[in-house]
Amino acid sequence: MLLKKSIDFGKHQNVSYANGKVTFGKVALNVYCYVIDGVLIDTGSRSLSKHFEPFLMEADIDQVVLTHIHEDHSGCASILEQKRNVPIYIHEMSVQDCERNPEYPLYRKFFWGKRKPFKATAIGSSFSSRTGNWDVIRTPGHAKDHLAFLNKETGQIFTGDLYVQTKTKVVLREESIPTIIRSLEHLLTYDFGEFYCSHAGYIKVGRKSLEKKRDYLIGIQQQVIERYQQGYSPQQIHDSLFKRKYPITKLSSGEWDSMHIVTSILEEIKQPI
Ligand SMILES: [Zn+2]
Fold first, then answer.
1. 172 C-alpha to center of ligand 1: Å?
2. Is 212 exposed, middle or buried (0-12, 13-18, 19+ CB in 10 A)?
3. Which domains does the chain carry?
4. Could you report the per-residue pLDDT of 9-41, keeping only the tens digit for each?
5. Rounded distance between C-alpha atoms, residue 215 and residue 218, angstroms
6. How far, in Å, is the centroid of ligand 1 from the Cα of 72?
7. pTM attached to this predicted model
8. 158 CA distance to ligand 1 centroid (A)?
9. Do the beta carbons of residue 102 and residue 71 sit within 8 Å?
10. C-alpha 24, offset from chain centre
């Protein structure tokens, strides 16, 4: 069985996008990068570099901003560094990691390729594009360095991997559901309507979708805590809330698992922040 690769290009309002896809058996993954007002938001994965390259090389850009360091978002940054003379910005905590060879499991290298080191600069709390000013919004939870970008002129917001879908069923081992809930609450204090997600694309009913996700996660959190207080074990809590097994869980040897939703919630009630 081979890894199938493809890409779509398009334009929505003032935003151009490339949406790369990798498929292996039942597992299909995709990732977007966006260009708006001279800014490239995320770079696509190294495994799809041949597919992303025409878009990245022709894009009318003078800077690159990364929502986080995960390899599907930063994989082509080294190509941009070599072939285009544009600065690349990321959360300050990841600047050093960008310069190193990354370590992540084999299945991720298989799907997304191996990110090469590149030089990045700390982004700060705001930046300017050709015609607009942007807020850089810290939204950890999916990853510690996760950022969202809000164009204050247009109200468009780029949410990286904060949303992806409303009813999250599997998360990475490093993710924290309580932190994601706080990030969603924080993002919802800003003035915006629609948003652009790195995996789901353009979401017109943006605010509503983020509110729904927040409410869903708060519901899960409450159920986990209730069952914990009733004496359920983490495994029993998991089995009562998440019935389905997802192919990514086996494929990733458990790096993606519904169980991490339960444990990240329990961690926080055992050790309140
Ligand atoms: Zn990610």
1. 9
2. middle
3. 4-270 (3.60.15.10)
4. 999 999 999 999 999 988 899 999 999 999 999
5. 5
6. 7
7. 0.95
8. 13
9. yes
10. 21
